[in-house]
């Protein structure tokens, strides 16, 4: 623990040295950077909407947008204009103040997280109107915690939108979204903790600088996978889009919204996609650094304005991953989604974080790398053996409790499921024979048990 404290202290000192570059820009340069961040998000969103519709159409053998602009590239702009010109309805029984503020509360925090994302090196690498400045709006010693805080505030906009509408299904959609966002933020935060242990800092610029020799996706692959799953659940995207499940919620928390208010919810969703992609790039994919083949033979790849290009390409690749999931995987059931978060991602995150902390502590104690691998592998094998034994005895208990006839129970898991090959459904209770159903359809006896016919007399109604 003392070595971990020393590591954290060293990381704090390093972050403080790097953060000395920030806070020196004149006010007009800060304004230019803020406008650039806003424009970057808006242009990326406009392109992502068109790209999503075209990629999904290509996957489903359809044409996709092709009317507005060259190759349909202005389709998202046309959609925005259409939404602004549509009638702006306000539900009669809604809480007017909260109903109008909810889209704003959902959209504004989505823009705020980009403020601490580095687009380039922390040093004075570029010149804007003769002033040398880093390619980042600002940075904080706890920059990643700032991102988590802004993402958490956006949840209020969604849950308040469902509550203030005064309708049942938007309320259920808002509660679903709030529950899944809170659940998946826990696993997301623990995947960040492994990065903090390796970089020794929570500053985004320092985390990127610490990936100079090796990206954290290679050192922390489990943390990266956990974050990828959590970020899809955090943004309410397919296959985890249960808050907007049209089949059982009619549309989710935004059902009672129209015009520009509905557009703000959609804007917040796509901006959150860009934000979580930027965070994944910053923490695991080297940030603004050029990919490996380019950085080896080109020394200037990570200087000047080139880092902005590599950062943008990485964002587009992760956005393509979002689109790929939507066009490939079906929507899961809500209980399956919550079980994945609480019973899989969070336990795996805890175990992985313990392993990472153990490796860091052993390295600080001076142990050889081969010994560290032996200790960690032995602990992992022991955990696997224990889990296999527990699963074996649990299956044995379930087999003993099962009836001897092996009848298939479609409600055994709490939800009706179809039978597997080789299984058959039990007979439906109180199911009349076919002859009696034909009698009912033709006006015959309604039931046999009481022997009363349609004319009120006994027997066959004669």
TrEMBL record:
Pfam families: NADHdh. GO terms for biological process: aerobic respiration. The chain crosses the membrane at residues 27-51, 97-120, 140-163, 184-203, 215-233, 270-288, 308-328, 340-360, 372-393. Residues 453-462 have a biased composition (Gly residues). It is found in: Cell membrane; Membrane. It is an enzyme of class 7 (translocase). It catalyses: a quinone + NADH + 5 H(+)(in) = a quinol + NAD(+) + 4 H(+)(out). Its EC number is 7.1.1.-. It comes from the Bacteria. Belongs to the complex I subunit 1 family. NDH-1 is composed of 14 different subunits. Subunits NuoA, H, J, K, L, M, N constitute the membrane sector of the complex. This is NADH-quinone oxidoreductase subunit H. The lineage of its organism: Bacteria, Bacillati, Actinomycetota, Actinomycetes, Kitasatosporales.
